[in-house]
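Write out the 3D structure for:
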Amino acid sequence: MLTWQYTIMNDFNENLLLLDTLNLCCPGCKAQLQRSAKSYSCIACKKDFPIMYGIPDFRLFGDPYLGFEDDYARTQLIVENMNRLDFAGLLKFYWSNSPETPDSLREKFVRTALLGENKAKEILKSFPQSEADKHKTILEIGCGTGGFIVTAAKRYKYIVAIDIALRWLMICRKRVEGMNIKIPLICCCAEFLPFPKNYFDQVVASATIEHTRSQKSVFSESYRVLKQNGVMFVSTPNRFSLSAEPHVYLRGVGFLPRKWMGLYVRLIKGMEYENKRLMSYFELKKMFLKFKNVKFSFPDIDDASLNQLGAWERFQVKVYRKIRLLSIFGLFLLFFGPMYYVLGQKPIQDSDIKH
């Protein structure tokens, strides 16, 4: 028991030391913060932000799926079992203790998380590569179980990972432990980032933007914290995709008026469809209006993920792989393709830079 507590406390303290190397600010008023053993305090608005298991909780509102108290309870359950289970075992344990998730989807969610590094490799192919990468600062919004950051750490030296769910940050910590990777973890809202302006070279939001409370605010905050010529990357499902909605594995959801989507999912799947807002091409394009050199692309599906699919799904993927390489289908995929990769660059002429 003492060994378990010692190991966990070492991990907690290590994250705080990593955070001390960052320039953090109040997520609300953006003023300077002071850290004590148990919290960060804003010197301007006097708001206190607790430190939970070595991770600062800068959230101004709770996780939309569980809220503060339930998230803390799930996190405690994860902490108590971190040393007992390996990463895959911890994922299975978590989903087995998530009664709101249908049994039919738990195994699929575990498989998706385990294949996160394969997906990250495909994402990184979209980023221009140079010798300067090792000096760039990267922020991942919605790091989840950490598939992207453990892969990106092989290319980038300075990465910060945030998520609105404290429980996912603890599972993420399990993934990176033992890999000799040091990445600061922060719990906060993507709409209220605890960083000063012009701070990061890249902001990455993979399979995250569709779960946020205010997508417009997420883009605004990401733009603010990006340096001049900094790049924002978003991967997100297409609302009007002809394939199944990836969170509930049901076709046709996006073609309905938004107020009917929840009823449709409950009738067909017997589950709730809340806090998910998939965007269309035009909606995403509008979000990137302030950026320059905006590029939409259509990602490939890695072989490991393909092998997890059924025969009919594999056939559809093979068809998609062929048409995504043909320019004549470009317009069709913009409107009805399954997934978007979008890159946009912050202009040098940003007025904030002139101060």
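The domain at 2-238+279-298+337-354 is CATH 3.40.50.150 (Rossmann fold).
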